Amino acid sequence: MATAIKEPNGSMPVDATNIPAEAHPLAEKPAEIASNINYHAKFSPHFSPFKFEPEQAYYATAESVRDRLIQQWNETYNHFHKVDPKQTYYLSMEYLQGRALTNAIGNLNIQHAYADALNKLGHDLEDITEQEKDAALGNGGLGRLASCFLDSMATLNLPAWGYGLRYRYGLFKQKITKEGQEETAEDWLEKFSPWEVVRHDVIYPVRFFGHVEVNPTGTRKWVEGEVIRALAYDVPIPGYKTKNTISLRLWEAKAVAEDFNLFQFNDGQYESAALLHSKAQQICAVLYPGDATEDGKLLRLKQQFFLCSASLQDIIFRFKERRDGKGSWQWSEFPSKVAVQLNDTHPTLAIPELMRLLMDEEGLGWDEAWDVTTRTIAYTNHTVLPEALEKWSLEVMRKLLPRHIEIIEEIDKRVCSSPL
Question: Membrane-crossing residues (predicted)?
Fold first, then answer.
């Protein structure tokens, strides 16, 4: 069955049998692009096959563009994996990307070809781009700056990745009614985002609460508490008129099947049975949850540590992956291959978390771990306004991150005792 398509004037639907539904992932000619869009409308279906209205056309068009990005994405990853340069990793709680479709076809210099292809399918490019919802990953200058940095680094052919959180509802959407301003949850993921690729093989444990266990050898280990899994979703970031396509890796918080208590559920204790699943969903529910209560403070701190821990575990994994098969190596090489840039105060827990990972998981001593950490992590401060310089009470920190309080107190002790 051919895909039913509306003519440009929106009147009678027409039959696109003259446009084959064939996959042309790297197409540049309008006819082949139209064929690839038609292919995704038929064989990557998300809607009823009996209509091809602007919303359906947007998703099929986005998937057609994504085909091309994935090819460049894989080539970029393989190139940097082989060359093994020093790579920048940008950690930010916010990203304000704008419309990915317009940005992608502009950077790839194929906007005119896509406009012609969509005309063949009975649509205008401008109408299709209007269908895209803004990714609710940020709300202001901090997020816009982060996205501009990623775009610029991709354009300059720099080896760089961004890390953030995959917020389910972002902040809010606003409506003006007779009663005034009304705020409702942002629904940018109500259907799905065609730009993200879930990486089911990239998942890391992130611990909260628990206590510190001291082993007979004197080494310390953070144990028990809650463990939430961080699952990676990757978004391609293409450079302008270059093949370099880098990644924005977003973390989603997940609990696993073992965390669902089937016996409690069958006993009617429905909320208790899925308690950890509920707590996991809260972490990436919204950007900047209210922190007027202790629970709100704990949730904000959870968000920030979740981003830091998952990202650093991933960075360390990639560093080791690139060392495989290259003979012996030392942790002193880490800062020559990794640069972690913290966007404002939100990801600063990356400093004690990298110390913990290096000492407790990798077996480094304090001095070596501190040397690696201080040569790896850099920090950007955007303002000195008190509301932007976050403060956390010792009680909240010690409750949620007991091992990190030990590390922070030791850092403070050593800095205060060192000569100026």
Answer: none
